[in-house]
Amino acid sequence: MGMDLGSAGSSMATPNIVPLIDILLVLIIIFMVITPLTPKGLDTLVPQPSPKDQQVNQEQMNKTVVVQVAMGGKLKINNEDTNWQALGPRMETIFKDRAEKVAFVKGDNDVLFMDVARAIDIMKEAGIDKVGLITAKLEAGQ
Protein backbone atom coordinates (compact mmCIF):
# COMPACT_ATOMS: atom_id res chain seq x y z
CA MET A 1 0.00 0.00 0.00
CA GLY A 2 2.11 2.78 -1.25
CA MET A 3 1.28 6.34 -1.86
CA ASP A 4 3.41 8.94 -3.56
CA LEU A 5 3.15 12.45 -2.41
CA GLY A 6 3.18 15.09 -5.06
CA SER A 7 4.47 18.57 -4.80
CA ALA A 8 2.76 21.43 -3.01
CA GLY A 9 0.71 19.29 -0.67
CA SER A 10 -1.29 17.42 -3.35
CA SER A 11 -1.33 13.64 -3.13
CA MET A 12 -0.90 11.25 -6.05
CA ALA A 13 -2.14 7.68 -5.51
CA THR A 14 -0.61 4.68 -7.29
CA PRO A 15 -2.68 1.53 -7.70
CA ASN A 16 -1.78 -1.38 -5.48
CA ILE A 17 -1.77 -4.48 -7.70
CA VAL A 18 -0.93 -7.06 -5.02
CA PRO A 19 -4.63 -7.83 -4.28
CA LEU A 20 -5.27 -8.09 -8.03
CA ILE A 21 -2.51 -10.69 -8.37
CA ASP A 22 -3.94 -12.62 -5.41
CA ILE A 23 -7.36 -12.71 -7.05
CA LEU A 24 -5.87 -13.90 -10.33
CA LEU A 25 -3.96 -16.71 -8.60
CA VAL A 26 -7.14 -17.86 -6.85
CA LEU A 27 -9.01 -17.86 -10.20
CA ILE A 28 -6.24 -19.89 -11.83
CA ILE A 29 -6.46 -22.49 -9.06
CA ILE A 30 -10.27 -22.65 -9.38
CA PHE A 31 -10.08 -23.20 -13.14
CA MET A 32 -7.41 -25.87 -12.72
CA VAL A 33 -9.65 -27.76 -10.30
CA ILE A 34 -12.83 -27.42 -12.39
CA THR A 35 -11.30 -28.40 -15.75
CA PRO A 36 -11.03 -32.18 -15.14
CA LEU A 37 -14.69 -32.29 -14.07
CA THR A 38 -16.07 -31.13 -17.41
CA PRO A 39 -18.04 -33.77 -19.36
CA LYS A 40 -16.19 -35.44 -22.19
CA GLY A 41 -19.12 -36.37 -24.44
CA LEU A 42 -20.28 -39.76 -25.64
CA ASP A 43 -18.08 -42.79 -25.24
CA THR A 44 -18.17 -44.78 -28.45
CA LEU A 45 -16.90 -48.15 -29.49
CA VAL A 46 -15.88 -48.63 -33.10
CA PRO A 47 -15.74 -52.27 -34.23
CA GLN A 48 -12.67 -53.35 -36.13
CA PRO A 49 -13.09 -55.17 -39.45
CA SER A 50 -12.27 -58.85 -39.40
CA PRO A 51 -9.54 -60.21 -41.64
CA LYS A 52 -10.76 -61.20 -45.09
CA ASP A 53 -9.65 -64.83 -44.81
CA GLN A 54 -11.43 -65.40 -41.48
CA GLN A 55 -14.91 -66.95 -41.56
CA VAL A 56 -17.68 -65.08 -39.75
CA ASN A 57 -18.87 -66.97 -36.71
CA GLN A 58 -22.68 -67.39 -36.86
CA GLU A 59 -23.00 -67.34 -33.07
CA GLN A 60 -21.09 -64.04 -33.00
CA MET A 61 -23.47 -62.61 -35.60
CA ASN A 62 -26.49 -63.65 -33.52
CA LYS A 63 -25.06 -61.88 -30.45
CA THR A 64 -24.41 -58.63 -32.31
CA VAL A 65 -27.22 -56.08 -32.09
CA VAL A 66 -27.24 -53.35 -34.74
CA VAL A 67 -29.74 -50.49 -34.71
CA GLN A 68 -30.09 -49.01 -38.19
CA VAL A 69 -31.30 -45.42 -38.46
CA ALA A 70 -32.71 -44.58 -41.91
CA MET A 71 -34.11 -41.42 -43.48
CA GLY A 72 -37.55 -40.37 -42.31
CA GLY A 73 -37.04 -41.69 -38.78
CA LYS A 74 -37.25 -45.37 -39.76
CA LEU A 75 -35.54 -47.77 -37.39
CA LYS A 76 -34.47 -51.39 -37.63
CA ILE A 77 -33.01 -53.68 -35.00
CA ASN A 78 -31.10 -56.43 -36.83
CA ASN A 79 -33.32 -55.98 -39.92
CA GLU A 80 -36.50 -56.05 -37.79
CA ASP A 81 -38.64 -52.91 -38.24
CA THR A 82 -39.40 -50.85 -35.13
CA ASN A 83 -40.22 -47.27 -34.16
CA TRP A 84 -38.83 -44.70 -31.71
CA GLN A 85 -41.33 -45.52 -28.96
CA ALA A 86 -40.62 -49.26 -29.08
CA LEU A 87 -36.82 -48.96 -29.36
CA GLY A 88 -36.13 -48.62 -25.61
CA PRO A 89 -38.38 -51.44 -24.39
CA ARG A 90 -37.22 -53.72 -27.22
CA MET A 91 -33.56 -53.13 -26.35
CA GLU A 92 -34.30 -53.85 -22.68
CA THR A 93 -35.87 -57.20 -23.57
CA ILE A 94 -32.98 -58.12 -25.87
CA PHE A 95 -30.33 -57.35 -23.26
CA LYS A 96 -32.07 -58.46 -20.06
CA ASP A 97 -30.37 -61.89 -20.07
CA ARG A 98 -27.03 -60.83 -21.55
CA ALA A 99 -23.97 -60.14 -19.47
CA GLU A 100 -22.20 -58.16 -22.18
CA LYS A 101 -24.32 -55.14 -23.04
CA VAL A 102 -22.78 -53.89 -26.28
CA ALA A 103 -24.76 -52.67 -29.30
CA PHE A 104 -23.96 -50.78 -32.49
CA VAL A 105 -25.66 -47.94 -34.34
CA LYS A 106 -25.55 -47.68 -38.12
CA GLY A 107 -26.84 -44.52 -39.77
CA ASP A 108 -27.54 -43.98 -43.45
CA ASN A 109 -25.42 -41.42 -45.28
CA ASP A 110 -28.26 -38.89 -45.50
CA VAL A 111 -29.63 -39.25 -41.97
CA LEU A 112 -29.21 -36.37 -39.52
CA PHE A 113 -26.80 -36.90 -36.66
CA MET A 114 -29.58 -35.76 -34.32
CA ASP A 115 -31.44 -39.01 -35.09
CA VAL A 116 -28.32 -41.11 -34.46
CA ALA A 117 -27.71 -39.29 -31.16
CA ARG A 118 -31.35 -39.85 -30.20
CA ALA A 119 -30.95 -43.59 -30.82
CA ILE A 120 -27.77 -43.63 -28.71
CA ASP A 121 -29.55 -41.82 -25.87
CA ILE A 122 -32.47 -44.28 -25.93
CA MET A 123 -30.06 -47.22 -25.93
CA LYS A 124 -28.13 -45.79 -22.97
CA GLU A 125 -31.41 -45.31 -21.07
CA ALA A 126 -32.26 -48.95 -21.81
CA GLY A 127 -29.17 -50.03 -19.88
CA ILE A 128 -26.69 -50.70 -22.67
CA ASP A 129 -23.16 -50.11 -21.38
CA LYS A 130 -21.30 -49.58 -24.65
CA VAL A 131 -22.67 -48.20 -27.91
CA GLY A 132 -20.49 -48.42 -31.02
CA LEU A 133 -20.80 -46.74 -34.39
CA ILE A 134 -20.69 -48.55 -37.72
CA THR A 135 -19.61 -46.57 -40.76
CA ALA A 136 -19.84 -47.44 -44.45
CA LYS A 137 -16.06 -47.84 -44.75
CA LEU A 138 -15.94 -50.09 -41.73
CA GLU A 139 -18.74 -52.25 -43.09
CA ALA A 140 -16.89 -52.57 -46.41
CA GLY A 141 -13.84 -53.84 -44.50
CA GLN A 142 -11.60 -50.84 -45.15
Briefly say what this structure is.
This protein is of the alpha/beta class. It has helices spanning 18-34, 58-63, 84-95, 113-125, 136-139, and strands at residues 3-5, 11-13, 44-45, 66-69, 75-77, 80-82, 102-107, 130-134.
What are the salient characteristics of this protein?
142 residues, alpha/beta, Nucleotidyltransferase, domain 5, 6-stranded mixed sheet, two-stranded antiparallel sheet, elongated
Structure write-up:
The chain has 142 residues and is α/β, with parallel strands linked by helices. It folds into two domains: 3-37, no CATH class; 44-139, Nucleotidyltransferase, domain 5 (2-Layer Sandwich). It is built from five helices and eight strands, in the order ββαβαβββαβαβα. It has helices at residues 18-34, 58-63, 84-95, 113-125, 136-139; strands spanning 3-5, 11-13, 44-45, 66-69, 75-77, 80-82, 102-107, 130-134. It has a six-stranded mixed beta sheet. A hairpin with a 5-residue loop joins β1 (3-5) and β2 (11-13). α3 packs across α4.
Topology overview:
Blueprint: E1 3-5, E2 11-13, H1 18-34, E3 44-45, H2 58-63, E4 66-69, E5 75-77, E6 80-82, H3 84-95, E7 102-107, H4 113-125, E8 130-134, H5 136-139
Parallel strand pairs: 3-8, 4-7, 7-8
Antiparallel strand pairs: 1-2, 4-5, 5-6
Distance, first to last CA: 69 Å
Instruction: Return the structural class.
Output: alpha/beta
The total beta strand count reads 8
**How is the main sheet built?**
6 strands, mixed
Query: Could you name the CATH class of the largest domain?
Result: Alpha Beta
In the predicted model, the low-confidence regions spanning at least 5 consecutive residues are none
Classify the oligomer. Answer: single chain
Q: Approximately how much beta-strand content do the residues carry?
A: 15-25%
Give Rg in angstroms: 29 Å
- Shape category: elongated
CATH-defined architecture of the largest domain: 2-Layer Sandwich
CATH topology of the largest domain: Nucleotidyltransferase, domain 5
Total helical segments: 5
Mean pLDDT: 79
